[in-house]
Structures are given as C-alpha cells and as structure tokens.
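Weekly structure sync, notes
Attendees: PL (lead), two postdocs, one rotation student
Agenda item 3: pending single-chain targets
PL asked that the sequence for the first pending target be pasted directly into the notes so everyone works from the same version. It is reproduced below exactly as submitted, 338 residues in total.
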Amino acid sequence: METISGGDLETTIPYSGRRDEVGEMAAALAVFRDNLLESERLRQERLDAESQAQARRRQEMAHLADSFDRAVGQIVDMVSSAATELQATAGALASSAEETTTRASAVVDAAEQAAVNVQAVASAVEELAASAAEIGQQVTQSTAIASRAVSEAQETNARVTGLKSAANQVGAIVGLIGEIASQTNLLALNATIESARAGEAGRGFAVVAQEVKGLAEQTSKATSEISGQISSMQVSTTSAATAIAGIGTTIGDMSQMSTAIVAAVEEQGATTAEVARNVHQAAEGTRLVTSNISAVTQAAQASSAAATQVLSSASDLARQSETLRTEVSRFLQTVRAA
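Predicted structure, written out during the meeting:
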C-alpha cells in the first residue's frame, strides 16, 4: 500500500488469491490500483489530447497569422503605395494649379490691358468716323455750292456772249468814224491795260469812259464816245467770256473733284464704321476672355486648395498605414506567441 501510495502503480500486490480478509484487502487494493492506472491512463490521454489540440491550435493560429499577415500586408502595402502615389499626384496637382493660377493671373492682366487698348482704339475710331462724317457733310455742301457756281458761271457766260454779239453788231459803227479810230484804239488799249491791272473790268472802264467822254466833247461827235465804248466792250467782253468760261471749267472740275471726294469720304466712313464695329466686337470678346480667365483663376485657386487638402489627407493616410503596419506586426507577434 505504501508503494502504491508513493506512486508506483506497477508493483505486484501479494495475497490477492487468498480467501480471507487479507485476500479481500489485496483484491480491493488491486482494484484500487487498477482504477488508479486507468485514471492515470485517462489523464495522460487527456494531457496528450490537450497537447495535440494546443499544437494544432498553435499551428492553426500560426497559419491564420501567416494568412492574415499576407492579406493585411498586401492591403497595407497597397494603401502605403496608394498613399505615396497620391502624395506625388497631389503634389504635382498643387504645383500645376499654382502654375495655372500664376499664368492665369498674367493672362488676366494682359487681357485687361488689351481691353483698355481696344477701348481706346474704339474711341479713336468713333472720333474718326464722326470726323469723316463731318468732312463728308462739308464736302457735300461745297459740291452743292460749286454746282450753283457752275450754273451761275454758265448763265453769266451766256449773258456775256450775248453782250459780245450786241457789241459786234454795234461795232460796225467804228468804220464810220475814221477820224478818231486811232485814238479810240489807243483808248481801248489803255482800257485793256487798266483792266488787267485792276483785275476787275469795271474799274478800268470808268477811267476809259471818262477819257472817251472828254474826247467826245473835243470832237463834238457823240459817235466818238460810242465808238470808243463799243471797242472797249468788244475787247472786255471777249476777255470776260474767256475768263468766265475758264472759271466755269475750273468750277466744273472742282465739282467733279468734290463729288469724288464725297464718294471717297462716304466709302471711308463706311469702312471706319465697319472697323468701329469690329473693334467693339473685339472689345466685347476681350471682356469675355477676361471674365473666363477670371473664372479659370478662381477654379485654379480652388484646385490648388483641394490639392493641398488631398496632399494633407495623403500624408495622414501614409502615417496611418505605417501605424497600421506596426499594429498588425505587433498583433501577429502576440498571436504567434500564444
């Protein structure tokens, strides 16, 4: 019994074959020993089963940890790579947005200056159009005046021609007055010289008439005065007719030139009006460009702000992915050590 209580269950129990009390005790001790052996066997089996279960659990946990490590590791790597790429993209986007903002601001300044210049050109063209219209009106008035002058010159020329014809008819009297023909011719010459000097036929005529009158008084013949006047009238009317014809021709040329100038001014006015319209359209286009560029600038600034926010978020994501990687590694170490 002491041997069994000491843990030696393999010992042989004596007296188990006896039929007395000692034999019964030996038999009971043998049953007790057998129960202990069975209990030990069951305990050992339980320990073996627990050990195997724990080994399987550790193996499964290790396998699960490896699978988790691979899956989560890939995810963490993808997140980290995406965060890095997102950082690069956000940085490039921020730089591009900043450059776009800078260039758009420069374009806005240039467009505003162009708008000012175009507006100045438009004002100048409008003034030019107004000046052309005023010149056209003045030339039109000059043309009308020249036309009236041509008509008056033609009418005057007709009257002078009639006067010349009458003077020619009366000039036949000159042949009847032979005594004073030479003096009359001299007076006519003097009248022509005086007319050329004075520029107006009437002034010389008065002096000559006075001299002819004196001569008539001297000769006592009224025909002498008439003869002198007629001779002077013939010369003067011829000169006047020629001069008036020349004036009429000159005024006609002026009228034609004025008409051509009117047409040219009208054409220039139409061209100037078209230029003014185009300049106004250009000014409107420049204004629209300025407005659109301003909108682009605002959009670029908004993009820059968004890119900055994305860059900050990407940096946070990169830090969080590294934190996740550290926590996952720590968790896997704990799992593998369990």
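Discussion points:
- The chain has a mean pLDDT of 67.
- DSSP finds five helices and no strands in the chain.
Action: rotation student to compare against the earlier draft before next sync.
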